[in-house]
Amino acid sequence: MSYSVCLFGDSVAKGVIFDSIRRKYRVIKDCFAASMETQEHLRVTNYSKFGCTITKGRELLERHAAELSSYDFVVFEFGGNDCDFDWHAIAENPDGEHLAKTPIAVFEEEYRKAVRFTRENGGTPVLLSLPPIDAHRYFNWFTQGENAENILRWLGDIDRIYRWHEMYNLAVCRVAMEEHVLLLDISSRFLERSHYEELLCEDGIHPNEKGHELIFASLREAAEKASHRMPQLSPRLALA
């Protein structure tokens, strides 16, 4: 039997990588979402967009409200853009107050609204945790052409970028727990690697081809474990 999945997310879910040879971003053919479709015989409708935040994602979700009940699962992957800052503005004014694209409290509330809206419209929400980033590589990436010293002064230390990103990942986990939504963990498989940065692109934030292979493997493993914990949902969660 074939099951259907609707995916809302950002460039990670879209399958965007940075091509170091062509020096530009592009969508890879074998991203984790495409692998779910070709290898696991799932029907995947991917509404993910480059640069998408949870607020924009919820607007997109509402535009597709009538479809939600027709899918077995509605999967969300957000947070990477939400936690980011206007680094140019920080470089220009390191002593000023600067907010993330989506402040953490707003992020959490918008995610809850997306989950509840999905259920109210007959869908079954599933959340994905976030792949980790390489803070130092990302810092070197976004400070190109900027006053890196000013940005570092505002940050305090480069590793704050990693901690800030992880705070949003924890918010995703908290929403899943408190809203009683299935969370598929793709973070741990990266973090258990000695050099997980090898699974990231030059920019330090987008998983590369190997990273997408690991995300796909993580989803298979997480779904298998979920089906064992909640047999009433099996085989619908058994992607493998």
From TrEMBL:
One function term, GO molecular function aspect: phosphatidylcholine lysophospholipase activity
One Pfam family per UniProt: Lipase_GDSL_2
Keyword field: Hydrolase
InterPro entries in UniProt: Ester_Hydrolysis_Enzymes, SGNH_hydro, SGNH_hydro_sf
Keyword Hydrolase: yes
CDD domains from the UniProt entry: SGNH_hydrolase
Ranges for domain SGNH hydrolase-type esterase: 7-214
UniProt keyword Hydrolase, yes or no: yes
Protein name: SGNH/GDSL hydrolase family protein
Organism: Candidatus Caccousia avicola
